[in-house]
Amino acid sequence: MASPGSGFWPFGAEEGSAAAETPGTARAWCQVAQKFTGGIGNKLCALLYGDAEKPVETGAKAAAPGAAEPRPTCTCDKKPCGCQKADVNYAFLHSTDLLPTCNGEITTMSFLQDVVDILLQYVVKSFDRSTKVIDFHYPNELLQEYNWELADQPQTLEEILLNCRTTLKYAIKTGHPRYFNQLSTGLDMVGLAADWLTSAANTNMFTYEIAPVFVLLEYVTLRKMREMVGWPGGCGDGIFSPGGAISNMYAMLIARFKMFPEVKEKGMAAIPRLVAFTSEHSHFSVKKGAAALGIGTDSVILIRCDERGKMIPSDLERRIVEAKQKGFVPFLVSATAGTTVYGAFDPLIAIADICKKYKVWMHVDGAWGGGLLMSRKHKWKLNGIERANSVTWNPHKMMGVPLQCSALLVREEGLMQSCNQMHASYLFQQDKHYDLSYDTGDKALQCGRHVDVFKLWLMWRAKGTTGFEAQIDKCLELAEYLYNKIKNREGYEMVFDGKPQHTNVCFWYIPPGLRGMEDSEERTSRLMKVAPVIKARMMEYGTTMVSYQPLGDKVNFFRMVISNPAATHQDIDFLIDEIERLGQDL
Amino acid sequence: MASPGSGFWPFGAEEGSAAAETPGTARAWCQVAQKFTGGIGNKLCALLYGDAEKPVETGAKAAAPGAAEPRPTCTCDKKPCGCQKADVNYAFLHSTDLLPTCNGEITTMSFLQDVVDILLQYVVKSFDRSTKVIDFHYPNELLQEYNWELADQPQTLEEILLNCRTTLKYAIKTGHPRYFNQLSTGLDMVGLAADWLTSAANTNMFTYEIAPVFVLLEYVTLRKMREMVGWPGGCGDGIFSPGGAISNMYAMLIARFKMFPEVKEKGMAAIPRLVAFTSEHSHFSVKKGAAALGIGTDSVILIRCDERGKMIPSDLERRIVEAKQKGFVPFLVSATAGTTVYGAFDPLIAIADICKKYKVWMHVDGAWGGGLLMSRKHKWKLNGIERANSVTWNPHKMMGVPLQCSALLVREEGLMQSCNQMHASYLFQQDKHYDLSYDTGDKALQCGRHVDVFKLWLMWRAKGTTGFEAQIDKCLELAEYLYNKIKNREGYEMVFDGKPQHTNVCFWYIPPGLRGMEDSEERTSRLMKVAPVIKARMMEYGTTMVSYQPLGDKVNFFRMVISNPAATHQDIDFLIDEIERLGQDL
Lengths: 586, 586
Description:
2 copies of one chain form a homodimer.
Chain A (H helix, E strand, L loop, with lengths): L23 H10 L6 H10 L55 H22 L12 H7 L11 H13 L9 E2 L8 H13 L10 H18 L7 E5 L2 H16 L3 H4 L7 E6 L5 H8 L7 E4 L9 H13 L3 E8 L11 H10 L3 E5 L24 E4 L12 E5 L4 H6 L32 H34 L5 E3 L10 E5 L2 H4 L5 H21 L3 E7 L2 E7 L8 H15 L3
C-alpha cells in the first residue's frame, strides 16, 4: 500500500487493515480441494494459498541450463508442493525456446500453463472479499517500484512470468464484488474463457475467408439483438465496434449519409449546415463525434432535462423548429437510454413522434441502458426504442461481457455498406468462391477489426436470455436496496428524488461536521471536497471504489452503479459503512 | 472438408490428402513427454494426440449430477487417460455454478483449465504442418452443420466446452506456418499469454485510476516507439487505437485541427476546402477517413507511383501547386511506408522536403512497414520518417503481436488532447489525488478503450529489440528466397522487377496451357481466373493460403507476404509446389 503522506490523511494509515490477506477462505477451500485425486488437489491448494504473488524463487529451481529437465518423482509430504509440474527451468529459457521453435511444444505448454496458473489465482482472488480491490501506488512510485523499460536484450521466461505477476499485483480487480467504479464491472467466467479462445484464434473480422465462424456468429448475434430491440424478424444491419463512443459516431455518420449521400465524395462543403440534438445529460461522445465528423460541437444542441435527467420533448421540438427557422438542417436526435450519471431514460415514444414529424434520424444511445432489454420487468423503460433508426448497445456494461463489446444496430439494411465501402480489391475480391455477402468488413470504418462477438455469443449460450435477465434484475434490485437504505438515513442527501430507474444511485454523504450547517458558501465548498477525499482514502485502503463527479450546479456527489453480478446486499452495506468510516472526520 | 461440387474442380477431391492428421509427430513428442513425472506426461500426450477435436463423450462421464464429484484413483494402464483431471461432470453444471457463485472456486478452475486444455491443443496443432490451415465450409453449410442460435434457456458447461471445440474446428489457424494470407499472421506465445492476462485484468484505458499499470506501460512503450522513429528523446504523443485505419483517421483529424482549430466547434463550414494527398497505392483507409471526417473522398488526391509502387515526389508537388491554384488548402500528405500490395516504401525524404516547403502535415502510414524500424539492416527504407508529424505503426502486422495493436505516434505533444478532449467530469475529475497527466483518455475519440499495449510490451521484454530484429530479418530473407526461386522459374511472371523491399512478392502463375500463348484478350481473361481458382482449391484442401488481387490494369496476381516467424524455406517451397499442383490443369 502506498504511503498516503499527501496531507489530507488525518490519522495513521492502518496498513493492510481492511485488506489483510487472511488465508481463512483458502484453507477451507483447500480441504475441499484435497478430495480430488491425481494431484489436482495440491495444485488447487497452491493456487488458493496464493503463493503466485511471491517473487519467483530461482534458488529452488534446478541450476542446469536447458529446457524441460525431468526430475525424479517427488516424495515430499509437505502440501502444497509443486510436484505435479514439469520442472522447466525458466531462468535459462527465452521466448525463442517456445513454439514455433523446433521441439518447443513442451516448453510452450508448461509456460502457458504457468501463466494460466497465475491468472487462475488472480481470478479466484478477484472474488475474495478479504483481498484489496486495488494496491494503490502513485504514478511516480509505480514507475520507480519496478523497472518497466524496454531494452535491446531479451529477458528470460522467468522474468516474463515475474512481469505478469507484478502487473497483476498492481492491477485493479475489476471483478471484485466491491468495485463499483465504472459502468463496466465484474468478471464473467464464460466471457473470460471466450476471450482467451478469441486470442488463440487471433484473427480479424473483415472477411469470411479468415473468420468464418466469427462472421457467422456476428450475424446471428446482431440479428438476435435487433429482435430484442423490436425490429420485425430481427431485420436490419449492424456491427460490433470498439466502444460506445465509436458506435455513436457511426450512427451520426450514417444518419448524415442517409440524408446527403453526396457528403461521402464531396464533404461537408457540399451540403447545408447540419444540426444534431441530444440532452444535456447525454454522453460526451455525441459532441466528440460531431467534432470528428466535421460537423462541429456548436452544431450539437443540448436539450434541457427534467430533474430526473430525462430529455424534455417540448424543448426538443422547440429547438428543432428554431434550428429550421435559422436555415439549419436537423439530421439527428440522439436520445439516451440510461444516462451516464443519473441512469435516466429519455422518453423515447415522445421523441420518436417528434423525429417522425420533422423527418429526423432517431438514434438511441443505449450503451448503458440497452441491457435492460433482456429483462421482462424493466424493458418498458425503453419503450419506443423499436422506432429508432439506430441503437448503441454495449454488452460490456450491464451484461457483464468482458471489454470491449459494443454493438451498433441499424434498422435499414445496406446503408452502412454504402456509407463506408471503398471496395479494396485486395480484401474484397469479387471472384471468390463463396457468398460474398459474408465479407462484411467494408461496412466498417476500420479495416482490421477485433473479434468482439465471441464472448457475448458464448455467454448468451451459457446463460440464455433468462440468465442475463436474472443477473440484470438482481443488480437493479440491489440499487433499490441501496436507495431505500440511504434515502432517509442521517447524513445522506439524494441528488434527485424517487426510486432509481437504472442502477445509478446518486447521493451526497454529509459528514457529521456539516450536518447542522445552513446552506452557505462555506458548506458548499466543504461538501465539494467530501467525495474526493473519501474516494482517495478508499483507494489507499483498497477496500472499495465508487465514482463521484460534479454536475451542472451540483457539487461533487457519489454516483453508485451496480453492474457486477458478484455484488450482494452485504457489499452495499459495506460501502455505506466504509463511506461513513472514511468520511466521519471531514 | 467441404465437398467442392462447385463446378471448377476438374478431378476428385482427395479428401484430407495433404492435410491428413497423421499422429506421427504427436507420437514422437509423446515419448519425450512421458519423461515428465506426476502425470503431466499423460496430459501432454493427450493434448498432442488431439482428442479434443472429438465431440465430448458424455457417456464416459459420471452420471451423478452436481459439481466436483471425486472418484477413486485411476488404475488404468491405457495412456493417455484423463485420470489427472478432477472429474467434474459438466453435463449437470451451468455458468451459474461458476464464480462468483458461492463455493464456485473449484468448478471454475476446472472449467477454465479445460478450456485452456482445448486452447493449448489448438495452439500446438497450429504449428503442426500435418494439420490443415482451414477446414473450409461454405457459409450455408457452416450455418447448417451446427446450431449456432441464441436461446432463452442456458446451455450446460458441457455444451459450452463443445461450442469452444466446434468454433476452433472451423477456425483458420492463423499461426500455421503455411498461412500467408494477410499482413497479420503467426501466433506469438508470449503475446498470447499477455492477451490472456489482459482479458483477466478486464479494464479500460481511460484513467490511471482503473488501469494504473497499463497506462504507464502505454507511456513507456509509445515513448520507445517514438525513439525508434527518431524523435529526440522519444518526445511527442500517441495512442494505441483499434487498427491502422483508425490511426490514419486520427492523423487526418489532428492535422486538420492543427491548421484550423476552430473546426472542432464550427465544423467544416467554417474553414476553407481542404485537400489531402496520398499515393495511388496507399491504403483505402485514407479515403475512408476523409469520407468520415466530412472532407470527402474527392478531396483526397491520388499521386502517381513508379512501377515499384512508390509515390513520385514531382507528381506530389505538381498536384499540391495545382490545388493551391484552385484555392484549396493542402493540409495533409499521407506517405506510405510499406504499401499493402507491393510493399513499397514512398521516398520519405523527398516527401518531407515538399511538406516543409508547402507547410503541409506529413503523415507516414507505416502500418505494415513500421516494423522494419526494428531492423538495423532494413530501417534505411524508412529514412525521413523522423521528419513526419505523425506515424501509424501496427505491431500486430510485421512484429507478430496478436490482434489488435496499432499505434498512432504524434510529434507535437498535447495536440491530441486539445483536438479531442471534452472534459467529461464523471471520468476526468480535476480534484483527484494523483497526477492527472496520467488520465490520458480524453485524447482519444473513444471513451472506453481496450488494453492493447500489454501484449506488445511483454513481447518486447521477452524478445528485446534484437529479438524483433531477428524475426523481421528472417521474414525478409524468406521473401528474398521466394523471389530468387521464382524470378526465372518457368511458369512465373513477376508483377514488378527487382528484389522486394518488404516481404511482399507479387507474381502471376502461368499454367502450362497459357505459357505459349501470345498476349491476347483470351489469355488475359484466362489468366485472370487462375489465382482465384488456385486460391479456392487451396482453401478446400486446407493446405495453405495466400492472397491475390487485381491492381489497376493488372489482372489477378498472387501477393505473397511473410510475417509469420514460423515459416521456413520448406514452407515457401511447399507453397510453390502447391500452386503448381493446383494450377497445372488451368
